[in-house]
Amino acid sequence: MTALPADVPEEMLLGQYIPLHYHFNMLRDESRMQPFREAIALTVPPDGKVLELGGGTGVLSWFAAQNAQQVWCVERNPALVRAARSFLSKNTNGDRVTVVQADAMTYLPPEPVDVVICEMLHVGMIREKQLEILASFQERYRRAFGPRLPKFIPDTSLLAIQPLEQDFCFSGYKAAVPMFEPAGPHMADRVLGDPHVYSTIEYGTALPLELEVDAELTMLRGGQLTAISFLTNNFLAFVLSEQRAVQWMMNQLILPLPEPLEVAAGDRVSIQCAYRAGCSLEALQESLTVTRCSHTIPLRSAEPQRRVA
Q1: pTM for the whole structure
Q2: Count of CB atoms within 10 A of residue 207's CB?
Q3: Most CB contacts within 10 A, which of 35, 65, 105, 280?
Q4: Where in the chain is CATH 3.40.50.150?
């Protein structure tokens, strides 16, 4: 594998530039792979044309190639370009995929496409450049091919926050570090309030590059508010005939607070942050403020936990 230039910042190496030896985590993650496979099969028309921006190992382009006539798979990292070409040559219909070494921020396909796949996603839209790249793509594509945009996979992303009690204790050692864990019932005894959706991103419309949380949440149970969970649910495709969506819920990001906040059921807590899409985790954490409001809401009993759909 050819290394990237020494002056590439570490933030980019582990953001836009994910080394090949990390990709096995994505390839073996069935909670990610199967929804993408289903959404791509549902969205790509027979003999259609597809563009993937940030193709990595080429697996999503390969899913598309099972229906498509032509797929352009754009990847900037030269090591991944070589790997994707090798892998695709060994898989059925891999010859329908052209792997292009280029910057997704500037690349346009040689002709209009039916579908654009872009999975440069990180929870909360931090670190990776999903929004910046697709905003640039929309503008350049319309100039080149007219106002009609292709379909996008994902179609929509839903961003939310949730207050948590997390002890950050590891083998008896207290260490309040950011954590990535699956969102779900294993956190039920530590959830202090309902999720609050702060942004709905539809990829076929104008895309926000600045994101903001400004919410007052009611605590459903008392405890130590020690962390805020950032949740990201991606709606990859909508199956209207079955009244359902193909979804991929990413791991939640649990950000520790500098100091715990003692809360009781009914307390109102203000949560605020503002950040630019693609920023560092540290920038998100520095912008986060959590304070208790002066008023409370009486609660008869703790309500059941609700999760982002």
Answers
A1: 0.89
A2: 19
A3: 65
A4: 10-119
HEC string of 57-71 equals: CCHHHHHHHCCCCEE
Give the separation between CA 88 and CA 161, rounded to whole angstroms: 39
Exposure letters 149-177 (e unless 16+ CB within 10 A, then b): bbbbbbbbbbbbbbbbbbeeeeeeeeebe
What stretch(es) of the chain map to CATH 2.70.160.11? 156-296
Rounded (10°) CA dihedral 4, 30, 49, 208: -70
Burial of 21 per CB tally in 10 Å (0-12, 13-18, 19+)? exposed
Question: Sign (positive/negative) of CA torsion 201, 206, 212, 218?
Answer: negative
What backbone torsions phi and psi does residue 271 show, to the nearest 5 degrees? -125, 125
Q: Read off the amino acid at residue 199.
A: S
User: Half-sphere exposure of 93 toward its Cβ, with a 13 Å CA cutoff?
Assistant: 14
DSSP-derived letter for residue 79 is H
Tokens of 36: 């993408």
Structure confidence by residue, pLDDT tens digits, 26-84: 889 899 999 999 999 999 999 999 999 999 999 999 999 999 999 999 999 999 999 99
d(CA 223, CA 220): 10
The superfamily CATH assigns to domain 156-296 is: Hnrnp arginine n-methyltransferase1 (2.70.160.11)
Residue 55, SS3 per DSSP = coil
Q: Does domain 10-119 have CATH number 3.40.50.150?
A: yes
pLDDT computed for residue 195 by the predictor: 96
Whole-number Cα distances in Å, 252 to 64, 109, 255: 28, 34, 10
Peptide linkage before 154 cis (omega within 30 of 0)? yes
* pLDDT tens by residue, 99-110: 999 999 999 999
- 217 burial (CB, 10 Å; 0-12 / 13-18 / 19+) is buried
- Residues (pLDDT < 70) of the chain are 1-17, 184-189, 295-309
Structure tokens at 286: 């520095």
